[in-house]
């Protein structure tokens, strides 16, 4: 899906306005197949806690006003970064259980050759493609996150 979408109804929240029950991340991840299309599992203050399944490459993008937190739940994630001299790139490798924060404004491109499951933490309303990005390929969902049980779940 390449339009700006948001599906936050029935999202678990801990601010008194929604469900206030534990979420089993393994079961939540088993409930959808869509790649590069994060699900919001809960909110902490003004931040979304999202899960996503990924495989292949995302796209080069940057979030100008926020850092982006990645935790690898399953598999391995590579994040290419343009955070040094102009024209230089480096890659950080995150095996299962690793965390990494991409600082605000840094161009980055996540990828996973064999697939991975991720937990992401970022301000509510943050687009998956950031504020600046390359052309969006068809396999990348341009979204601010979908509620569990929302768009594409069970496909």
Outline the structure in words.
This protein is mainly beta and 155 residues long. It has one helix and eleven strands. It has one helix spanning 25-30, and strands spanning 5-7, 39-44, 47-57, 61-62, 68-75, 77-82, 90-94, 99-102, 107-123, 132-133, 143-147. The strands form two sheets. Strands 1, 2, 3, 5, 6, 7, 8, 9 and 11 form a nine-stranded mixed β-sheet that branches. A hairpin with a 7-residue loop joins strand 6 (77-82) and strand 7 (90-94). The longest helix is centred in the first third of the chain and has 6 residues, at 25-30. It is globular and about 45 Å long.
Radius of gyration: 15 Å
- Tell me about the largest β-sheet: 9 strands, mixed
What fraction, in percent, of the residue positions are helical? under 10%
How many beta-strand runs?
11
Weakly predicted, low-confidence segments: 1-18
Strand content: 35-45%
Structural class: mainly beta
Order of helices and strands: EHEEEEEEEEEE
Instruction: Give the N-to-C terminal Cα separation.
Output: 14 Å
Instruction: Compute the average pLDDT.
Output: 88
Q: Count up the helices.
A: 1
- Approximate shape: globular
